[in-house]
Amino acid sequence: MSTATLAPPVAVDTTGLHARPDLGRLVAVELRKMVDTRAGFWMQVATVALTALVVIVALAVGDAADHTFAAVFDVGIFPAAVLLPVAGILLVTSEWSQRTGMVTFALVPVRSRILGAKVIASLALSVAMLAMCAGVVAAGVLVASPPVDGAWSDAGTLIAQTAVYLTGGILTGVAFGATILASAPAIVALFALPITWTAVASLSLFADVAPWLDTRLALAPLHQEVLSTTQWAQAGTALALWMLLPLLIGIWRITRREVSV
Amino acid sequence: MIDSEGLTKQLGGRTVVSDVSFRCEPGTITGFLGPNGAGKTTTMRMLVGLSKPDRGEARILGGRYRDLPNPGRRVGILLDASAQHAGRRGREALAVSAQTMRVPAQRVDTLLDLVGLDQAAGRRRVGAYSLGMRQRLGLAHALLGEPEVLILDEPANGLDPEGMRWMRELLRGFADRGGTVLLSSHLLAEVEAVADRMMIIGSGQIQAQGTRAELLTQTGTLVEAADVAGLDAALHHAGLAAHPADGERRLVDAEPEAVARAAMAGGVVLRRIAPAEDAGLERLFFELTAAEASTAPQDPNPIHPELTGATA
């Protein structure tokens, strides 16, 4: 008696070499792609160098009593806050503008998996940059040792809130990149649209809704002060409009769009 | 194995690929021949899921490409050698894909070596590559996962004659070991030199397909006479369409026997009569792809336009 069972005539080998690359592998590849090009490499170097520069300048000027962690951190995260969203945009748009999508999506035909890997890789990069910022600022504040009480007050909360600020920023970049699928227009839109919106929202007509939908009003407190419940709600609605909505549009576009030659 | 059934694609309101069906068997090289813009690239993109067909279906190794769990290990693709990040080093471009499809990093160096890109070339950024180097990098990329099927769009583009011969030998060896190859070209000579089977595509439709011998049977007769005017008159009288060929020869759309009878009836002495072979294949190629004839280097008009005037 045989216990062997018949294999289906056309079996897809899903083991060994032919197993699907898992998500962890795709995330590692996307992280690698963020730093292995000339532009990507220098952008990460610039973020670190500018952070150190900004922190040194912040500690060198002004009153020693103002050199608390909270005050220095507020300016210290500025380079990362500006450059991370650009990294997020390029992570997506380079697949089209550099046409690497033809390789990427041929190797991983289920495109939503690539987009998922890009989102996770972006989060990892922004957390790494946050750790770098917090480390540089902490080192600076230690060296300066400001002669005030509470030099380190709220440090933990501010770092945690800034995690939301930076990850929200890079995901907004990914979302704009995915929606627009071209590097330069996406970068212009990322910086110009919220400014335009701020201008429009400053009209008294919009005075009530502005704090809820204006990223500058709603998100800036994340790295400046401990948020109230209302402020959290405002940050949430602003992120829903500027990050979640374009991300959904982007997923829809990427999974349908022809990868052109 | 590659199976295409009725692939159809419209882009911008124009039918770019229309009802394209073919089959590529293991152990063979299939040449996909057609002028630029005939639909070769769009067809190949549909085979690998980069473009979605409006109608029809493509199967690779028995299933849909997108259902292959790790497609890079089964199917090697070169659709556009320039589709690499200009700011990434050549070796790194391969290494990224090797990591994705779980190929050991050593294989990257093996392949760079195989395609003739040395260490220094591997360290250079792809943006600084010549077209030939990009093509070699693209071939290395296609072979990286030790695939069973190769799909190559204009692989000979930018290669020098030595590189082209090297590539032909490489593809021959790949097919002889049981691999399936589909390669496209807009140059007849390139495809003829390597392909077991040919498909000619024009205006988005397969115009003819078969082995070289099968295609040659429909290519007509090459005939030469001292009295060219007499020959033309005799052929015209017999209702056979003739086209100018090399020198004073005529390429006739008929079997040699019919041509010989026409000549005999007209009392014309022939110097030479034979199946058209290469000249005929070239003519067939231009004729079948006539919609793109504005770029064809050979005048497709027959000597007696009234005989085939309806096709103008």
Can you walk through the features of this model?
The complex is a heterodimer of chains A (261) and B (312). Chain A has 261 residues and is mainly alpha-helical. Chain A has eleven helices and no strands. Chain A has helices at 23-35, 38-60, 69-76, 78-97, 101-107, 111-144, 155-180, 183-201, 210-213, 215-219, 229-256. The longest helix of chain A has 34 residues, at 111-144. Chain B is 35% helix and 25% strand. Chain B has helices spanning 40-47, 90-100, 106-114, 119-123, 131-143, 161-176, 188-192, 212-216, 228-237, 256-265, 277-288, 305-308; strands at 2-11, 14-24, 29-33, 55-60, 75-78, 149-153, 180-185, 197-202, 205-211, 221-225, 242-244, 250-252, 270-275. In chain B, helix 2 (90-100) packs across helix 3 and helix 3 crosses helix 5 (131-143). The longest helix of chain B is centred in the middle third of the chain and has 16 residues, at 161-176. The model of chain B is unreliable at 292-312 (pLDDT under 50). At the A-B interface, helix 1, helix 2 and helix 5 of A face helix 2 of B.
Number of strands of chain A: 0
Largest sheet of chain B: 6 strands, mixed
CATH evolutionary superfamily of the largest domain in chain B: P-loop containing nucleotide triphosphate hydrolases
Class computed from helices, strands and strand pairing of chain A: mainly alpha
Topology:
The complex is a heterodimer of chains A (261) and B (312).
Chain A: H1 23-35, H2 38-60, H3 69-76, H4 78-97, H5 101-107, H6 111-144, H7 155-180, H8 183-201, H9 210-213, H10 215-219, H11 229-256
Chain B: E1 2-11, E2 14-24, E3 29-33, H1 40-47, E4 55-60, E5 75-78, H2 90-100, H3 106-114, H4 119-123, H5 131-143, E6 149-153, H6 161-176, E7 180-185, H7 188-192, E8 197-202, E9 205-211, H8 212-216, E10 221-225, H9 228-237, E11 242-244, E12 250-252, H10 256-265, E13 270-275, H11 277-288, H12 305-308
